[in-house]
Structures are given as structure tokens and as C-alpha cells.
Amino acid sequence: MTHFADRLAALVEERRSRVVLGLDPDPAALWPTGRGENAAHGLPAALAAEATVTHCAAAIEAAGPACVAVKLQFACFERLGAPGWTALERVRGTAQAAGLLVIADAKRGDVPVTARAYAQALIGSTPSPFGLIEGFAADAVTANPLLGRDSLEPLIETASSAGAGVFCLVNTSNPGASDLQDLDSAGAPLHERIAEMVNASGAGEVGESGLSLVGAVTGATRPERLGRLRELMPRAVFLLPGVGAQGGDAGALGPVFAPHPAAGLVAASRSIVNAYREVGGDPRAAAAAAAQDLRALTWNQ
Amino acid sequence: MTHFADRLAALVEERRSRVVLGLDPDPAALWPTGRGENAAHGLPAALAAEATVTHCAAAIEAAGPACVAVKLQFACFERLGAPGWTALERVRGTAQAAGLLVIADAKRGDVPVTARAYAQALIGSTPSPFGLIEGFAADAVTANPLLGRDSLEPLIETASSAGAGVFCLVNTSNPGASDLQDLDSAGAPLHERIAEMVNASGAGEVGESGLSLVGAVTGATRPERLGRLRELMPRAVFLLPGVGAQGGDAGALGPVFAPHPAAGLVAASRSIVNAYREVGGDPRAAAAAAAQDLRALTWNQ
User: Fold this and answer.
1) pLDDT, tens digit, 9 for 90 and up, residues B264-298
2) 3-state DSSP call for residue B20?
3) Closest-CA distance of chain B to residue A195, Å
4) How close is the nearest chain A Cα to the Cα of B14, in Å?
5) Domains and CATH numbers, chain B
6) By CA distance, what is A151's nearest residue in B?
7) Per-residue pLDDT reduced to its tens digit, A100-145
8) I need a labelling partner for A282 at 20 to 30 A (CA). Which of A36, A102, B21, B238 fits?
9) Which residues are CB-contacts of A50 (< 8 A; sequence separation ≥ 6)?
10) With an 8 Å Cβ cutoff, is A181 touching chain B?
């Protein structure tokens, strides 16, 4: 089983890209191609899920070649109920068939016994008297570290066995992030304490690339912090949301990439998928161009 | 629409109970009645989901009358994929039909735009061109507050409209909780800063009972902290996991209940559902007795 960071490193070098296509589909704002002509019958959730799969597949086909991964926003699928979960699995398969890694952006975090169940759900599998129950088969997951190291360990252990990765929230991209994450914690802001914990959790999980399978979610909206966070987490792959629609500047991310070309991933959702609303024309062409532009901008740093 | 805390208060008074039945089914450890005789055909996940529904319905029938709510551990269902999500919905319906409130223990937390999608998924509904997509219809959800107040607001707003509640993690019951939650944060441990934020978030959401729809998850494993947390959150309903299997003492919870009989809920999962392993005999009888014992112990304080 190849280590997650080494799989990622090879893909980044091959595609010369650090772009992650974020998919957070809103059933009220799908591409026209995603609305489907067969939508005359069925329950709203099932119809919306089918259209969501079509929409996501089109976005992957258009923007995927400029990217190394997709990030699936679980909330957007969960609001479609069981059909949404099936849609998640289908989109996961489409993305992996296109050579992309799949990041389950589910931000789970729970006590160890429950964290193990989440690990089974998202990365591993669940033994049962009915046979082995396969999980979601994500290549990586996002995790909330508020419950401490023991809550991360089941995810990390399962990921290590499966060649998968775990991106822990360190400093998020929303304005309210400062409420807790910036509180002074014994002489440093809390997000730096979280960074220390993430670094410690990932220290034993480093691949041949020198990068750990335990990464960090660090918002691109506060680029002035990235140098310090890189010092605290020298082996972590940074997953950087907030570029584009949330206002982050993709040109200010230099320190992130210093350790390795694959040491930072830039996640963009609406700025790629909804690019056609700005530039007009075909959603696929606009998404392909936006992804390619972001690839070039973030590669040449 | 009746306020969540007032619905809860009425139910607590009527049933003279503060017990929440936690359901975290493991497909490898279901009650014999949950294994089913029709399990000869089908995929493992579908068979496990069907057996899980049977198991949970039996547990609700047995222990439910001594309880006011069930707490569904989403991780345990999500590991069954789409059939697991359908099972969640069926168990939710069974519990509500038995007069119990349903707490979706999903511990979600995300940036505001995504938190709104989780609110649609768990409490509200999602408008779409295919018709309105109904959500899970939980009576309450658990939420992770690491992302700050703006990440909680969509959940609280949606809950307020739906007569539902939001229990925010303040101090969890696992050993690793101390890694971050006990860090000194400008003169107080972080969990007290979280408590202040939770109190502020719930201040405008108080029902006739004097209790807020914004509650707090506070582990029963550290009862010496509950007095201080009560001072900081005088209007919050405390949801107390960790009794029983995790070692919490149900007899040490007095300060929690001071503001109102419904100001504290004691959640027990394995100590009820797996009671038969200790005492022998029929799982249903053992669960009913364990729930009734916990009801009496926590009511007479």
C-alpha cells in the first residue's frame, strides 16, 4: 500500500498541479446539464441526487484534468438523504476513475470509539456477521481536532493502513474562526497549539516524500499566518480552502510549498464551478479555464 | 411551533425522566432479535442496516418508556452507507412515534455556507427545482463549535424555526479532551471560553421554561466541573454522555439540574443496550431495567 503523501506527491509532479476541485452542489444551482431531461417522475431527493451526479461528473470531466483531487462537501449531499449518500459514492467513483484523489470533506470528530466508526465509514470497512461492509473509500478525510489526540488516532490508524490521509482543521477560512482559534493559549494562539498537536500526531506517519499523511486545513484567507504554521508543521500537507469566492489570494501562498511541491493543495469550489456566471458561455469551458488558470497561478510560485 | 426547551420540559415532567437512550449500533453486536431470519440474501450493508433497524426498534420498545429522547450516533449508521442513512430515518420515525425526542449526534461543524447545508440536512429542508427536499427531521443536533459563532448560527436559526435544539460540544467525555479543551485561554480553560460562547449564542433563544434551545455537551466523566459550567451557562440544557460504560457517576450531577428539572439530560448507550451481558437473560428486560434504574437515580437528585 503506497503512503498517501507519496501517492499525492507523484500525482502533483505528474500533473504539475496543486488544485483541488471542491464540489459542494446546491440542487437549486446545478449546471444546466445537471438538471436532466428525465426528471418528470420520482421523489425530489432522488431526482436532485441524480441531477447532482450528472452535474458533478460534468464538472470533473471539465476541470479535473487541471486538478489532482476533488473535495466532496458531505453536507451538500447529506441534505439529499439516502439518495445523496448514493450520489456521493457515484461521484467518488467518477473522480477516482478520472485519476483524481477524493477528499471526503466531512470534518468529523468524536470520542475514540465513535471516531473508529467514522474511520470505518469513510476510509476502512466494517466487519459484520453479514459480511464485510465496505466504507466510502475516500483517499483522504477532513477531521475536527477539538476532542484531542485520542479522537484523531482511529482515523490516522485506519488511514495509514489504507494509504489514505487525514487533514485536520487548524485554522479555518471563515470570519468566526477567530472566536476560538485565535484565543491566547499559554502564550500562543490556539490554532498554533492545534498545529503542534497535528504535527505530533503526524510525526510517525511520514512517507518517502518527507510528507506526513496527517495534513492540515489552513485557510487561504489569512496568508500572513502560513509561514508560522509551516514552521510548526514542517511535514504536513496544507489543504487551503478559501481561495476565490471566500476572498483568499492564490498568489500569496509561497511558504506553504517550500518543503515539497506537494506540500500545499489549493481548494477552490465556486470560483471554478460557477466561473461561467462571471465570464458567460458554457459552464464546462469556463470551469476548465478557471481550473487551468488556478493551476498555473499556484504552480509557478 | 413550540420552543424546543419547552417541548423537552413538558416531556421531562410528564415522564419524570432525564434519560436519553443512546443508540450506537455495531452490526457485529446486535441483539439476537436484531439479526433477523431473512438475512439469507442481499448485500452486507443492506442486511446489516435491516438488522440494525430491528435492533434499534426493540431497544426503543424496551427502554424508551423510561426515557425522554434517543441519541442516534450517526457514525454507526454512516458506516452502512446509503442503507445506513435509510436506517437512520426509520429509527428516527420509530423513536418519534414512541413519543421520544430524537437527537442527531452528528457533531457537525463547518463554515457558515456549509453549516447551512448541514442544518438543511438534519433539521430543515432544501428547496430545489425538483420540489422541497425534506431533511432528517431531528428534534435536536449536536454541533462542534471550533469554527466559532458564525458556524453555529445557521444551525441555531434553522433549529429556532423548527422547534429544535442544538447541543454544542463544551467539554467532552474522552481522556484526550484535555489536550485542547483544558488549555489555559486568557486565564480560563478553553472549555470555559467555549461555554461563554455557547451561552452568548443561546441568550436570544430562551423558551417559557427559562431554558435555551442552545444546549451544551458536558461529559459526566468530570462532574467536579459541572458547577462552574452551570454558572457560565445558566440557561443551557446539559447533555451528559459518559455515564456507565465511560465511567461517569450518575449520582454526582446535582448542580446540573438546579435551574430546572429539564436542565440536564443523561445519555447512556452501552450501559442500557448491553446490560444483558452483565445481568444475563433477555436483552429487552435487562435494557428496560437499566433504563428504569438510571431514570430513578437521576430523577431523585
Assistant:
1) 999 999 999 999 999 999 999 999 999 999 999 99
2) strand
3) 11
4) 32
5) 4-299 (3.20.20.70)
6) B176
7) 999 999 999 999 999 999 999 999 999 999 999 999 999 999 999 9
8) A102
9) A36, A38, A39, A42, A83, A87
10) yes
